[in-house]
């Protein structure tokens, strides 16, 4: 049966060495350090400019060219059909 540590008894806390935060799992602490202290961050860098971000999703948003608005699109299509 899965043991759930509801009361955090016997938990080995991983203390962040940079602030007072602590986590139960090394993975969580790593995420915390990356988010809060920018430590061990795997930066996703834009190949075209100085932009960098921690999240792949943000980089995708940055690199994906914005689609022309719907009205523009319609204007372009006019006369084609
Ligand atoms: Zn911290
Ligand atoms: Zn860029």
Describe what this molecule looks like in 3D.
Strands 1-2 form a two-stranded antiparallel sheet. The chain has a two-stranded antiparallel sheet with strand order 3-4. The mean pLDDT is 85. The protein has two domains: 12-41; 42-81, no CATH class. The radius of gyration is 23 Å and the shape is elongated. It is built from three helices and four strands, in the order E-E-H-E-E-H-H. Helices cover 35% and strands 10% of the residues. With 81 residues, the protein is of the alpha+beta class. It binds zinc ion (2 copies). The site of one zinc ion has 5 residues, from loops.
Which features does this protein show?
two-stranded antiparallel ribbon; alpha+beta; about 80 residues; elongated; binds zinc ion; 3 helices; single chain; 2 domains
Write the layout of secondary structure elements.
Elements: E1 14-15, E2 22-23, H1 26-37, E3 44-45, E4 52-53, H2 56-63, H3 70-77
Antiparallel strand pairs: 1-2, 3-4
Bound molecules: zinc ion (2 copies).
Residues 16, 18-19, 21, 32, 36-37 line the site of one zinc ion.
Brief rundown of the structure:
This protein is an alpha+beta fold and 81 residues long. It has helices at residues 26-37, 56-63, 70-77; strands at 14-15, 22-23, 44-45, 52-53.
Total strands: the figure is 4
- Provide the list of bound ligands, each named once: zinc ion
- Secondary-structure element order, as H and E? EEHEEHH
Low-confidence stretches: none
Radius of gyration: 23 Å
Shape: elongated
How much of the sequence is in beta strands? 5-15%
| Strand arrangement across the biggest beta sheet | 1-2
Task: Compute the separation of the termini in Å.
Answer: 65 Å
What is the number of domains? 2
Number of helices: 3
Helix content: 25-40%
Oligomer: single chain
């Amino acid at each position: 049966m899965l043991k759930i540590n509801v009361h955090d008894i016997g938990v080995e806390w991983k203390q962040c060495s940079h602030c007072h935060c602590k986590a139960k799992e090394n993975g969580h602490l790593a995420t915390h350090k990356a988010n809060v202290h920018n430590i061990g961050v795997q930066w996703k860098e834009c190949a075209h400019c100085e932009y960098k971000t921690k999240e792949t999703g943000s980089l995708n948003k940055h690199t994906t060219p914005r689609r022309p608005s719907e009205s523009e699109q319609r204007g372009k299509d006019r006369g084609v059909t």
